[in-house]
Amino acid sequence: MKIKWGKRTFTFLIIPDANSKVMRFRFSAILLYSLPVIGLILLAITLFMNITGMKNLNEKKAIAAQLVVQSVTFEQQLTDKEETIEKLQNSLVELSEQTEEMKLKVEELKVFEEEIRGISSNDSDETTSREVSIAAYNHEVKSLSAGVGGATQNASDEDITSLISDTEQTLHSLTGDIGSLKLQLTDTKELIVQNIHMMRITPSIWPTLSTKVSSRYGYRKDPFSRRAAFHSGVDIAGDTSDPIYTTADGIVTLANYDRAYGYNIIVKHASGVSTHYAHLKKILVENGQVVKQGETIGLLGSTGRSTGPHLHYEVLKNGDTIDPMPYLGVRD
């Protein structure tokens, strides 16, 4: 006999107690046999969801941990960047201060250079009037505007740090060099002062506007007797009333008229040196007067034993005449 499962049913009786009504529940066999399958399916779904949820949770935790690590890394990088920026700013401030010090030292050197230039140049108006003008070319450099270009490569923090370090070393080196240069300039200035002082107390300039020598020092044919005679100075031709300048600082020891020298002046200088100016038209100083190099002491003329307007100029060393030409910067 075949059993028809689709029509077979199961009845469940529930008797609460003797006096209560009996409750009956009737289920088909298919439903009862399907319950375990449904339960297994639900269990499988539950397990799958739990496993999937755990996996997602682990992935979320991993992502969160990775984000934490990246956040810490970014914060450290940001801190390093801020420290680098601060160091760069401090370095730039130090460089700025050193630059200001350099500017001050350069300004000091400029002042020094001006002092040396002032010392080296002759600021006497009278001396300037004696100097012969020399023509010179003035080369003028004209700046032309030009384009610039090229590929650009941004500098890294390391490049900037290295640049700052190199610049600091260069500035320190320049500071030392400028200090040494300043000492050298000080010594040079003192030497120049000494040299200028020696030049001022030593006959070293022309006593006239003219530089035309009409008769040299030594033996010559006397212009009056036409015989050989010793000439104790040099004759410098010029125009009547041209100014006569003392060739070095000194004191006037003689200022009078002489039959041979006419109106004449003797100025005593340092180191036993004296200078003699003769045949003057007029004397502008007096005996005992202190005179400075380049000062006008008389006017050119032709008084005394003279054939025409000129200055007879002598240089004496310890009372003896010597050739004046080397003192005028002229060498034989």
CATH class category label of the domain at 213-328: Mainly Beta
CATH fold-type name of the domain at 213-328: Glucose Permease (Domain IIA)
Write down the overall mean pLDDT. 80
Q: Give the % helix.
A: 40-55%
Order of helices and strands: EEHHHEEEEEEEEEEEE
CATH architecture of the domain at 213-328: Distorted Sandwich
How can the largest sheet be summarized?
10 strands, antiparallel
Q: Enumerate the spans where pLDDT stays under 50 for 5 or more consecutive residues.
A: 123-146
Would you count the extended β strands for me? 14
Number of helices: 3
- N-to-C span: 165 Å
Give an account of the 3D structure.
It is a single chain. By secondary structure, the chain is α+β, with helices and mostly antiparallel strands. The protein has helices at 29-120, 125-130, 157-201; strands spanning 9-14, 23-28, 213-215, 218-221, 228-231, 234-237, 243-245, 250-258, 262-268, 273-283, 290-291, 296-300, 310-317, 320-322. Strands 3, 6, 7, 8, 9, 10, 11, 12, 13 and 14 form a ten-stranded antiparallel beta sheet that branches. Strands 1-2 form a two-stranded antiparallel sheet. A two-stranded antiparallel ribbon has the order 4-5. The radius of gyration is 57 Å and the shape is rod-shaped. The model is unreliable at 123-146 (pLDDT under 50).
